[in-house]
Amino acid sequence: GYGLIRISPVLNPHPQNLMFPILILALWGILMTSSICLRQTDLKALIAYSSVSHMGLVTAAIIVQTPWGLTGAMTLMIAHGLTSSALFALANTNYERTHTRTLLLVRGLQLAFPLMSTWWLLINLTNMAMPPTINLLGELFIISTLFNWSTPTIIITGIGTLITATYSLYMFLMTQRGSISTQFRLLPPTHTREHLNLILHLLPLGLLIMKPALISGLFT
């Protein structure tokens, strides 16, 4: 994404007939990868496809080449970089104890790790761009940019946002709620380093809410 931002001004002015296919692919990719997330049984695969879906928004915003689009793209890249990394850290924490990434087998972990379940909830809310996170700020900039470029894009971005919220809740409920399997009754406790790792992901996200201009003011 950063490479596209750096190279795109060199290619200006964009021929319109070359811009349309890339934008259509980026927008279509948002729907496809979001839909794939809904049928995933592997936790890490779900998180990986989630990242691809968010990068479809970033690519579309960069190609439109407006100040709002570039601001939104940069904001969402940084926000999702922290969010996705935290999700992978949580998935690895689960895997180290259960030795499986299958969602159906790792249910009910809230009973075993209540504090870790809190991290799951906060990071999933961030992933679905709940206010007042900077993820929401980036997505609003991008959706506004695409809407100004072409009105029908609001349908695709709106559906993509709805599916994102759906699979984020699905991921949280499948891993944390329900009855825990009998084979996971005796699990080793979480460590301080794991909680510190997650704090170091969420702290920058929280601080950037106070002053989003640090990452969004580059192109305004």
Automatic annotation (TrEMBL):
It is a multi-pass membrane protein. The chain crosses the membrane at residues 18-38, 45-64, 70-91, 103-122, 154-175, 196-219. Residues 1-164 form the NADH:quinone oxidoreductase/Mrp antiporter transmembrane domain. This is NADH-ubiquinone oxidoreductase chain 4. GO terms for molecular function: NADH dehydrogenase (ubiquinone) activity; NADH dehydrogenase activity; ubiquinone binding. Keywords: Electron transport, Membrane, Mitochondrion, NAD, Respiratory chain, Translocase, Transmembrane, Transmembrane helix, Transport, Ubiquinone. It comes from Podarcis muralis (Wall lizard). The gene is ND4. GO terms for cellular component: mitochondrial membrane. It holds the Pfam family Proton_antipo_M. It is found in: Mitochondrion membrane.
